[in-house]
Amino acid sequence: MSHFDLTDCSHRRFNPLTGTYVLCSPHRAKRPWLGAKENAGAEKKNTYEPGCYLCPGNKRAVGNAINPKYSTTFIFPNDFSAVKLDQPDYVDEDSEGKSEEEKKLRKRLLITKGVRGKCFVICFSPNHALTMPLLTVNEIVGVINAWLGLYTDLKRQHFEEGKPYKYVQIFENKGAAMGCSNPHPHCQSWCLDTIPTEISRELSNLIKYKAENGTHLFADYIRLEQLEKVRIVLENDSFIVVVPYWALWPFETLLIAKEHLRSLEDFDEKHKEDLASILKKLTVKYDNLFETSFPYSAGLHQAPFFGSEDELDCSWFHAHFYPPLLRSATVKKFCVGFEMLAEPQRDLTSEQAAAKLQQLDSETHYSQRK
């Protein structure tokens, strides 16, 4: 070999959002579709399930709560919330009676902070069978309006009612492979009194990048992707979807606002329509890749309700999609071994994954073909 070939030589790719590296080993699997193609087939779901605690009119999982006969997007507080709003402040009572040395070491090493917040479930539709790619663009706009309504209401509650809210994380776990406990299409929103670790890390790196270069990282990255034109999966007036250069998951994508929108609050109707359109196209591509209801974890990253001037200025609306499928509908990537103990690793290059996604139909879902 006379030159370094990114499609054949092992190398590390830097993720500027997290300040970490991903080991890329393309020589192990040069094409994502090598091996037998295992088709899981279309998942058959009824439009209504009497035993589903998210369907309209049904009893929920705990207590005596009954869902209303909702006809559009439906939001309610999570019955199994990961955080509590009303709880006492944390005090390290276990330090009482300890020696001064033990107290000092506990303070250094056993660091605990109380966290308050509230969690919500957002049902996309009353229809039990309609995942994101099967919704209409107008229906997805309704979901986006629900996200926006929740964001603005929780922010209002902080400033007007003194609720301890600072950041709201909206995310979807789609499919059993990603731990989704109920197949009724829905996403979640966890609102905390702190900025979670991943978002905090991103903001720190976005602030650092602007301080060092005088420009926004996402503005520069969008321009670079538009110049190179190899990792772009989808694009419209308001948003771009790429397989990021530093992707870990086989068909990971990054959806980025093309202008400096800090949060959903900055959206106008055109932004909402464009986001709905590109979300539908992306998820249709995902389902068409292996002709299955494609599992993923996805989430929005946007500005906190309040923060430093730098945090608010460098916040840039974007969304991450982390799907686990590798070669077929039943072959998944696992982060084990070296990845758990040393560094994240992938076999497929971002460019190879993008090429595969680029050629897929984004208009017609595989289940709707004759």
TrEMBL record:
It catalyses: alpha-D-galactose 1-phosphate + UDP-alpha-D-glucose = alpha-D-glucose 1-phosphate + UDP-alpha-D-galactose. GO terms for biological process: carbohydrate derivative metabolic process; galactose metabolic process; organophosphate metabolic process; phosphate-containing compound metabolic process. InterPro entries: GalP_UDPtransf1 (IPR001937), GalP_UDPtransf1_His-AS (IPR019779), GalP_Utransf_C (IPR005850), GalP_Utransf_N (IPR005849), HIT-like_sf (IPR036265). Residues 4-196 form the Galactose-1-phosphate uridyl transferase N-terminal domain. It comes from Dekkera bruxellensis (Brettanomyces custersii). Binds 1 Fe cation per subunit. GO terms for cellular component: cytoplasm. The active site is at H186. Zn(2+) binds at C52, C55, H128, H184. Its EC number is 2.7.7.12. UDP-alpha-D-glucose binds at residues 28-31, 61, 78-79, 173, 179-181, 188, 333-334, 338-339, 345. This is Galactose-1-phosphate uridylyltransferase.
